Structure formats: structure tokens, C-alpha cells
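TA notes. Do not distribute before section.
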Amino acid sequence: MLEIRNLTKKFGGLTAVHDVSVAFEAGHINAIIGPNGAGKTTFFNLIAGTHAPSSGQILFKGQDVAGLRADQIARLGVARTFQATALF
């Protein structure tokens, strides 16, 4: 359902995500874990379209969504939520 191929994101001289490849199947629960500064938030921002990747592919149901705007990706069914305890 969601496949990440050789995903990299650089901010100037800093590489936040380096050559990540992973596949997530429908109907499974997965977790991304790691220490602070490991690139987890950047990884999710890339998938959701908040940031564009420096290189690599993000395939959702076979369609490459890397570089699409967040609203375009959300229309396809991928969206990011934030940890918030207050109602809007």
C-alpha cells in the first residue's frame, strides 16, 4: 500500500533522512522508532507532503506521490495528524 524507495532529505549540509527503503502493507500496524534527532518527524513530513524529498520515491497504491503538495496527497488518502490534547 505504501512503499518508500531510497528516500533522502537534505537541509543544506544536514542529511535528516538518508536512503530509507521500507514497505507498509494494508491491514498491518507498524511503528517508526528511534532517538530524538533520528529523522522520524522529517520522514512523516516527507510522506505527507509537508517537505519534498531530495531524492527517492514515495509510492502510495503504486502512484509516486513524492513532491506532490500536502493537499494533493491528502486527497489520495494520506494525511498527517498532530499530537494535540485541545479541541480546535
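Switch to the second chain here.
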Amino acid sequence: MTAEVFSAAETVPLVLKRVRGLVQPELRAAVDRLDEDSRAMTAYHFGWTDPNGVPARGNGGKAVRSALAVLSAEAAGAPARLGVPGGVAVELVHNFSLVHDDLMDGDTERRHRPTVWALWGSANAILTGDAMLALALEVVLESGSPHAGAAGQLLTETTRRLIRGQLLDVAFEQRDDVTLAECVAMAAGKTGALLSASSAIGAVLAGAPAEVTDALTVFGEEIGLAFQLVDDMLGIWGNPAVTGKPIYSDLRARKKSLPITYATTHGGAAGRELASWLSTGDDADLAEVAALVDAAGGRDWAVAEAARHVAVAEGALAGLPPGPRAELTAIARFIAGRDA
């Protein structure tokens, strides 16, 4: 990627801070609508409180999706405030999926804290996630935008795609013949769908023309795949002190992630050895298994593929205003270079 007149490393924290100041008060106000128990578990999950409800210093993560929603409104020439309900909604949908993912994956920690299900049990985690999902649609439909119905439909279609992607991810755990194309399709649903919706929902609420929403949708789909590729690399080689997950966590879970699937289907002798290990379930040194993924080309392919998707994403923004385009581009590059 060529150099620009801005630094992604400098621009992203600024735009995330700016948007957080707009979205966070509205997100907290939305969560306050929930019943007492759902509200307490949701606030804890976002990092706003400790398990006893005492206010904490957490902020609920980087909030990239809500930033994309607000920037998409600005990219359509609308005030940032018109994208705020979309930003709240996509954060709620994202965190609904995280609460459920933690339960399905058996993860007992997220961001170095116990997960909701680990503290309150499976049933409460399911219901808390469901409450967040319902609240997301409520926020969009009450936004006051004449285009709220279209934004609500985008949100529900996106959730359906997200769930389908998650179902495929679970199904792949029981299969030894997952193809790379299937794995990419799964990632496009599991991760790409919500990042795509996040990148367009503010523009939809603003009533933007189709060429603007289409460009933002493509941008989001592409950075979604880049995001998943990086996430999958971190699931193998990420630093536990930064990611909050054990090293080699995806190998330990025998996930059919993108670099692993590429390695098993395109990696020659090393890939065949890796595939054999995945199917036999033999106990092995995970450092050696990670080295097999590397030797089979999984890491190099994932790095190059993430960069390719970011380049396509940037190209999709060519006709948009320079200010929002620069900030969206910075977020795309941040996603491709992140370490957590």
C-alpha cells in the first residue's frame, strides 16, 4: 500500500476517540432500558462495571464498528449524529455475538476478565445476548430517521448472515474436508457481514444514494475479510498479554481458520502433515504445529491476502469525500496491522 498524507497509527485513535464521545453516552442510555439483570450483565460485559456492579474503567473495546457507522453517515454528506443510532446498534449486535461466542467456544476470559457465562452461567449469557440483539433493532427503529425501516432490515439481514457464518464455523469443527472457498464464505458471514453493515448503516439512515451505500458495503465486506485473516493469525501467533487469549488458542481448539485451511489445502507435505494432525487428534507440541502452518505457507498467505483485501476496500472509496475517505482508510489499515 502506498504512503498517504496521514498516518493510520495517528488517525485511528483520534477518530475512535471522536466517535466514542458521540456513541458511548447513547449506548449507555440504550443499555439502561434493559431489565435490571440483563443491564447488569451487559454493563459488565462492556467493561463498565465489575461483577458486583461497581463502576470500572473499562470502555468495551475499540468500538471500530460504531466508528464505521458514524463515518458512513459523514461519507454520505450527513452530520455525524445521524449515524449514531447505527453505531449503537452495531455495537450491540457485535457484543451479542461475543457473549454467545464465548459460551459456544467455552472461553472463560475476554479482555483479561471472566466472561459472562463463566460468572453467571449459560442461560444468563444466552438471554443477555438476546436482550442486546433485540435492543439493537429497537434503537434503529426509534432513530427518527425516515429510513429507519431500511436500516432495520439491513441489521436483521446482517444478523442472519452472521448466525449462518457462526453455524458454518461450528460445523467445520466436525469435518476434515473443509475447502478454502468454504472457509472464506464462512468468514464473510461471521465477520464480514457486520463490518459491512457497520460501514453502510449510517449512510442508509441518512438516505444516501445507492452508489454511496454500495461503495461503503463493498468497503466493509473487504475489511471484514482482512479483519478475520488478522484475527486468525493472532489466534495462532498472537501475544497472550495483548490478545487476552492463550498462545496457539486456535490450534488447541483445532479451528479450521483461514491460514490453517490454506495450509492444509495448498501447503504440500507440511500441509498434509498438518491435516493429519487435525484429523487424528493426537497430542502434539503446539509450537511444532504452528511451525507446520508457517512452513505450509499459511501465515505468508494470510498476510498477503489481508493486504489485498484492504487495497480493494480502499479502492471502493474512490468516489467518496476526502475527509471521511481518509478516516475510513486509516481504520482499514489499522485493522490489517493490529495486534489484538
